[in-house]
């Protein structure tokens, strides 16, 4: 936070070059001065003269009708049935680092469990001294913490392994959201039950009809997992696990079991469907990487991008995007306008929190020629986001999961962007 | 952030005293063991067996129907007409520090201006070298910053000056919200226009039918004001100024002009209605304090509170609340269970950001006897939240604005809370 951009953006005359903005007022009144390229003018609009809707017109507010295109979207050919499907966060429409709850992408395996919280229970059983069943009221008597964490599906960008497929960062990178969770450290609930010495793994289970289960090592559970009941201040949304979800910071989203109803303690992993036939990374050798839980550092330019073209053809331009790492913070992002020939350090703005989304900006004076845009994240461990080429050399092109390669957008003279591959 | 509560909450057997929670599982199966006071049991529910709605059931998501009581509320007798009225954030239903956009309190003077962003303009005129008119597209070519700030109406808690009036923190303290803004430093737009040497004050003006105007000193504008277009990642909500609002961090909400259409630069304040007959603080002497912009440090316990009773009658209990200061951060909050005889240091959890809401907790083993709950915020300047008595000794009881006195809730043996005064 703070006033980090004081020095990078204090120059007066910011728009003097390539001015399409800020029409100067003529001495005679409201009309733009001759010579200014901008079309800005001021009219008396109805909303300046008429009373609008009063308070409580909607006790729970909704976005402006002019923002109706800001919505989650699926890719129809991707899945056979919406109950076992995904949609995508419109990251090209957002800024800052908080994802509004109504726009957090969905991934369900048996649709949304519509749970009555009064009937919901969380059981802890297996290798514990005292098996326990908690009501929601019980859980709210345990100490809570608040943390902002990104949640990324391991399959985010998965369709890009073999080349540029989808024309929009919503679809290539939109299986991510970033919210503030309020939850109970899982460690406290495990301590209450008393884990036996041979209890080394957990099996969280969802209360939806798919009974989603994943094996989670005890070390992670005791480190930073939360049993969360709020997101961005309010109750979890139904499609995000209401009333209870497991938060597994920095690790792949599939492990963040929604509608959490049970946590079994065991002495070894369970080898469930979602960690054998799914969520493993098939290599060229025919073997598969397993238990690749941690999300590597990654970034993407959200504006401009195929769904968000530039509305001008030269001059002062703002490029922005998001970056994140399952290992910590993102102290630095580089961007290139020419496909990697020259890299520039981006400006970060907003809180830098561990395992949270970060926001970067790069302002430049566009000469109107085509651009090849890329971003490259550095995380707090020193890891640098790789090229897709480097990833493919090691992992081949058969995987679906854990593609954190550098993304490229081509921007033409009209400001239109498309998803391209650079060698 | 981080793992701040490791040491305060690691003890096993957390609920052993006064156990009403976490029914132990009998060896025979799911039924609670005899002797456990909890009523928790597990049944097979419909949502565990049936497919729920698929993705995109609602492209923009909404809360669970079980959360329908979590909503903004007005106080009917308070204002004559909803177009010039207020409603209140349900702070007793929230946790963490982010207020969801749909729950941010409303305060309108001529209803909600329903603005087409393509038609919206921002003019900067008056004592500037180059008067300017910006479209929304123009503004998005300036550098942006992201900051979490609280917005509190100066009249928040105003009805409490003469004593306990309203039974619920939503009504006594709910004219506050806390979101992440994305906006352009106002300084950059003023530099673009070129402020003349005698330009010392600004008059931001709203595009609603009330044409809200307030005088803002140049020093504040150049310090940290933003011209914001996003809140919590997405476009401002209509009732929060869509498509553009002034953000005046730490200062009273009335100055955060919504539907911002014009900023005039002048050499002295304008003495508008909203800074003379309103938003001044009438003292016992018959004179009034003016230009009391900065919001003093304040806190309130949100749970338990009159709208949010305790659901148990003794044993382990979580108390939580919010604190904020217009001058910086909140490094410390104290709480008392006995009306101020004994004070305890609360546990803070969540990011500590300047001029942002902070969240505090205090966990205690309730003996079941009545409680007199209070909280007291300390801010980063060393200022300590005063008692109402101390405030009244200096300012009398005629004011409406800037009541940051310590709030008291009485909790009875049933766990029910009410708004009371302590001498």
TL;DR?
Chain A has five helices and 24 strands. By secondary structure, chain A is mainly β.
Q: How would you characterize this protein structure?
A:
The first copy, chain A, is mainly beta. Chain A is built from five helices and 24 strands. A five-stranded mixed sheet of chain A has the order 5-4-13-8-9. In chain A, strands 6, 7, 10, 11 and 12 form a five-stranded antiparallel sheet that branches. In chain A, strand 18 (332-336) and strand 19 (344-345) form a beta hairpin. The interface between A and B is large, with 148 and 148 residues.
| SS summary, helix count of chain A | 5
* Overall residue-averaged pLDDT value of chain A: 91
Low-confidence stretches of chain A: 1-38
Helicity range of the residues of chain A? under 10%
Cross-sheet strand order for the largest sheet of chain A: 5-4-13-8-9
Quaternary state of the chains = homodimer
Query: How would you sum up the major sheet of chain A?
Result: 5 strands, mixed
Shape of chain A: globular
The H/E string of chain A reads EEEEEHEHEHEEHEEEEEEEEEEEEEHEE
Return Rg of chain A in Å: 24 Å
The tally of beta strands of chain A, per DSSP, is: 24
Largest interface (CB < 8 Å): A-B, 148 and 148 residues
Structural class of chain A: mainly beta
Strand content of chain A: 25-35%
Q: Could you tell me how far the N terminus lies from the C terminus of chain A, measured between alpha carbons in angstroms?
A: 37 Å
């Amino acid at each position: 936070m703070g006033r980090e951009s004081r020095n990078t953006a204090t120059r007066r005359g910011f728009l003097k070059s390539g001015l399409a903005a800020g029409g100067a007022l003529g001495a005679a009144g409201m009309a733009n001065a001759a010579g200014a390229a901008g079309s800005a003018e001021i009219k008396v609009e109805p909303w300046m003269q008429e009373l609008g809707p009063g308070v409580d017109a909607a006790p729970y507010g909704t976005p402006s009708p002019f923002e109706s295109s800001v919505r989650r979207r699926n890719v129809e050919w991707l899945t056979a049935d919406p109950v076992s499907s995904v949609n995508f966060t419109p990251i090209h429409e957002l800024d800052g680092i908080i994802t509004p709850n109504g726009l957090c992408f969905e991934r369900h395996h048996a649709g949304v469990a519509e749970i009555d919280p009064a009937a919901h229970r969380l059981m802890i059983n297996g290798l514990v001294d005292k098996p326990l069943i908690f009501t929601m009221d019980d859980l709210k008597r345990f100490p809570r913490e608040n943390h902002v964490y990104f949640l990324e599906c391991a399959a985010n960008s998965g369709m890009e392994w073999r080349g540029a497929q989808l024309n929009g960062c919503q679809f290539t990178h939109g299986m991510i959201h970033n919210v503030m969770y309020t939850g109970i450290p899982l460690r406290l609930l495990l301590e209450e039950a008393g884990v036996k010495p041979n209890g080394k793994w957990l099996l969280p289970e969802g209360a939806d009809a798919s009974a989603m289960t994943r094996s989670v090592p005890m070390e992670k559970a005791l480190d930073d997992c939360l049993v969360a009941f709020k997101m961005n201040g309010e109750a979890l949304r139904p499609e995000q696990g209401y009333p209870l979800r497991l938060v597994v910071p920095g690790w792949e989203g599939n492990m963040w079991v929604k509608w959490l109803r049970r946590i079994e303690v065991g002495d070894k992993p369970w080898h469930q469907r979602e960690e054998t036939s799914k969520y493993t990374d098939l290599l060229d050798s025919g073997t598969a990487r397993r238990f690749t839980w941690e999300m590597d550092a990654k970034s993407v330019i959200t504006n401009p991008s195929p769904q968000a073209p530039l509305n001008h053809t030269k001059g002062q331009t703002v490029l922005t995007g998001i970056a994140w790492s399952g290992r910590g913070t993102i102290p630095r992002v580089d961007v290139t306008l020419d496909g990697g020939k020259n890299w520039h350090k981006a400006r970060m703005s907003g809180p830098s929190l561990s395992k949270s989304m970060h926001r970067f900006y790069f302002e430049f004076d566009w000469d109107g020629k085509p651009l090849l845009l890329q971003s490259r994240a550095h995380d707090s461990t020193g890891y640098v986001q790789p090229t897709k080429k480097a990833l493919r050399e090691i992992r081949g092109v058969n995987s679906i999961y854990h593609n954190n390669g550098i993304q490229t957008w081509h921007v033409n003279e009209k400001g239109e962007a498309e998803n391209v591959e650079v060698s």
